[in-house]
Each structure stands twice: as C-alpha cells, then as structure tokens.
Amino acid sequence: RVGEMEGDTWIKNDMVKLGVAPHLPDIEVTKPTTRYTLYDNMPMLKPADAHIIKPAHAELPLLFMTVLTQMSAVVALSLVGALLNELLGRYLFYVSVVPLGLAGNFFAGNQRG
Length: 113
Hints:
- The chain is elongated.
- Helices cover 52% and strands 5% of the residues.
- It has 113 residues and is mainly α.
- It has a two-stranded antiparallel ribbon.
- It is built from four helices and two strands; from the N terminus they run βααβαα.
C-alpha cells in the first residue's frame, strides 16, 4: 500500500519512528511525504519471468553498434595523438634547434667539403 501522509505531521513525528521503507535514502536528506507499508500476511512473491530458465536472445544490432562505436573512438583518439605528437615535435624543433642555428644541418645533410 502506498499512502499519502500529511506532510508536516509526517516529517515532524512519524517518519523517524515508523520509517519509510528498507533500502531507501536517509530520511534526514530526502524528507519523503509518502510511506510504503506491506500487509502482514503477504504471500511469497516471485519475479514474473521466474519460469524462464534460458537466457534472453542476444541483441546483435546493439553488439555491432557497441563494437563499432568503440573502434571509432580508438581511431579518433589515435588520430588526435598522432596530431599532437607531430605538433609537439615541430614545436620542440623550432624551440631548441632553430635558435641555435643548427637547422641547416638537418636540412642540408651536414655536407662537409
């Protein structure tokens, strides 16, 4: 049974004493205004699909979309990583080699006559 309670009376007096229901968040945080109660002579209930002993069929479209999505994410991250690697290499080259005047050796092949 689900019963709607009078908010102020329920919050001030009955909520802490009677409790709301098992496994719900702390009543000091949520301040619920609905109380859940069970009958004393409740029959033993089973899930609606308790008679099914075989697993459900596989969702092939979901499987393929999951795999393809993961593959595309890996490819995208790899491309971003390759771009960042190239940019970092060029930046370090122009920060360290070019100011020292050594860039000609890299391009001309260090030809000595």
